[in-house]
Design a protein that fits this description.
Layout: H1 3-13, H2 18-23, E1 25-30, H3 37-42, E2 46-51, E3 56-60, H4 66-85, H5 98-118
Antiparallel strand pairs: 1-2, 2-3
Helix pairs in contact: 1-4
């Protein structure tokens, strides 16, 4: 899928309700290791969501509850979809105005004058 098509799919998907967004995803449950005790180590409570139209993959393994991990994964998917659908504003090159150039050069002259005053001679 081309970048433009992915961006359009992400823009459309980010506005969908949770159930409709989950319907567009392939949902997998797996055993998420780490701290949490026997309940976490023996049950498939970790969630992996693959958004089929865009190919985005998110996982959530931090909770012991499958439902909590599903909602966390869905939230992450929405964030990634929003980031994918963002189009940066086109920048156009501009030139500094005459007044800003004059102010910058005047500040440089003042700074040079201040530094030159510090160099004073050793005739005293």
């Amino acid at each position: 899928m081309e970048g433009h098509e992915k961006r359009e799919a992400a823009r459309r998907a980010v506005r969908l309700p949770a159930e409709a967004l989950l319907a567009e995803c392939r949902e997998e449950f797996f055993v998420g290791g780490g701290p949490g005790g026997q309940h976490r180590n023996k049950t498939a409570s970790a969630v992996r969501l693959l958004h089929l139209p865009t190919g985005l993959l998110v996982t959530a393994t931090e909770r012991r509850s499958q439902a909590q991990n599903r909602s966390a994964a869905l939230e992450r998917l929405r964030e990634r979809l929003a980031a994918l659908s963002f189009v940066p504003k086109q920048r156009r090159p501009t030139r500094a105005t005459r007044g800003s150039q004059e102010r910058r050069l005047a500040a440089k002259r003042q700074r040079a004058h201040t530094k030159a005053g510090r160099r004073g001679g050793d005739d005293e």
